[in-house]
């Protein structure tokens, strides 16, 4: 858009310059759950960030007594960090995040 388009609202004046206001990235959050009592809290956190989640897969590894969850997100960096951090703070939960280069 060559000329910014003004948007008027009582008490505010915005100029739209086009483009995305929030750049997002694709990331994979790997989650290993050693303490299954954290499962409900994990699901609550994932639900909180549901609008950013592209897909998830959970694998119970019964022989080792752990669960492995992979979550693919498309979100701004701060949202990805917040999600990973909240999950990683839970007892018996370890996370690692891998970002795409896109």
UniProtKB/TrEMBL annotation:
SUPFAM superfamilies: ACT-like. InterPro entries: Acetolactate_synth/TF_NikR_C, ACT-like_dom_sf, FeFe-hyd_TM1266. This is Iron-only hydrogenase system regulator. It comes from Ruminiclostridium papyrosolvens C7.
């Amino acid at each position: 858009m060559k000329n910014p388009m003004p948007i008027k609202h009582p008490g505010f004046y915005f100029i739209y310059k086009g483009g995305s206001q929030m750049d997002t990235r694709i990331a994979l959050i790997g989650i290993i759950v050693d303490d299954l009592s954290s499962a409900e809290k994990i699901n609550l956190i994932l639900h909180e960030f549901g609008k950013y989640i592209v897909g998830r897969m959970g694998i119970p590894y019964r022989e080792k007594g752990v669960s492995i969850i992979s979550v693919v997100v498309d979100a701004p960096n701060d949202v990805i960090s917040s999600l990973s951090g909240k999950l990683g703070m839970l007892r018996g939960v370890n996370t690692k995040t891998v970002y795409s280069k896109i």
